Amino acid sequence: MGTNKGLELYKDGKRELYRIDNLLPIANVISSMDIDPEGNLWCGDWHSDLAVFKRNTWHVFHGRQISDITIYYLGTLNDLLMSESSGIWALYSKDLLRYFDGEWFSYAKMLEDFEIASLSAIAEGPDGSIWVGASLGIFDKSILMKWDGEEWESFQTPFEDVYEGINCIEFDNDGNLWLSSSQDLYFLDGRETHSFGIRDYTDNTDCSALTAISDGTVWAGYQSEIFVLSEKSILKKFTREDGLPIDPSETDKWLGISEIKEAPDGSVWVVDRWGISQYDGIMFKPYYFGNNSFSVSADLAVDKTGRIFISSSYGITEFTPTSVTLKMNLFAPGLMYKAGDMFSLSLNVNNYGPDETGDLYFVMMTPDGRLYSGLDWSEGVRPAGKNITIPEGFAMPMIEALKVKLPVSKPPIAMPGKYYFALALADTGTTYFRAKAITSIDVVE
User: Fold this and answer.
1) pTM for the full model?
2) CA distance 274 to 355
């Protein structure tokens, strides 16, 4: 039951507080998130607090305690940058924070010499340099700043109009710099600057996402369309007619596109205020999440295994596109075990629809967050079977897949705590689950 103090569990005639593990430890209004090189999920809220999900546990950093500025509010968290060489960068409108070698650094005082009014965008150059877009507050005049590891250097932007603020910064696969402003989109190759004249193609010129893709193109997301670009050319334009998710009853073309990310399998994912969609090189497959499911500032992160995270004004959601006809179940006869007990795990699979093809996973997670894969139960996540087909009408009765006496080394079940088991079919070569089943047991001393 829910009370004004939290959740309570009523059991055996007693009421006790009920704790839910791994709740988001900061405010639900998440303004930015990303995956670091080690695979940990970072996110930040509108109260200047940051959190990282590492080894199945949340850790919190309070931005106001890290920053060197004296004002209470650091401003909006505009972006997170994950660098393999220089650490984690958190770009607020009023300060730039960096987490490196277990320490936080604030660049507020170092940037005072530039008389900056607001920071807006950040990107990492091919040489490991950090580039930041900022407004000087003088009629919103913008500058670019470059950090080479020791000091900051400022550059004038190519904008003729001093009212053009910098929205996004990106470097393509060839190391060329891309800038989006409140008026246009620019490509800089070190010799010349090319303006795309975006105002001729869209009513809203504020770019919300600028992403370099492995095929050499750059995707630019606006409120109602996505442009696919290559150096000085616009190759494609996508709108709601191309399958981007939107409420079918909506007559307005406005989508509220907020982020674009490429997955490990080369597919491109787009999040807007109505849901997310996957572009496989030919068409978009939309996943519509209902009216106003996300805020306009929704963010998107995809880790190296293909897990998809979506943030919004309602917290963080993990999303995997699943089959509606492939059903899997895992069953353990008991919930709690101790040394000397026999533990068994049974499973069944039924396919009520068309053939399903993919990689089959059978995985266990130990209480300390380590993952082991069957059937040999060695550490890591690997398919138990690759590119297998579960045919239409397939019906496998419940069978015993594992029977051991505890403690046991394969799978390693010895330490006390909660163990999770998962069976899943993923799209071949990815971890986009078509179907999955999860169960857990508690091992006590």
Assistant:
1) 0.76
2) 30
Tell me, yes or no, whether 244 and 339 share the same domain. Answer: no
The answer to whether residues 45 and 52 touch, using CB atoms and an 8 Å cutoff, is no
Last residue within a domain, chosen from 319, 341, 358: 319
What's the domain range around 393?
Answer: 326-443
pLDDT tens digits, 151-185: 999 988 888 777 788 999 999 999 999 999 988 99
Q: Is the peptide bond before 158 cis (omega within 30 degrees of 0)?
A: no
Q: Could you tell me if 88 and 233 lie in one domain? A: yes
Q: Model confidence over 236-258: pLDDT tens digits?
A: 999 988 888 777 777 777 888 99
Write the pLDDT tens digit of every residue in 257-270: 999 999 887 889 99
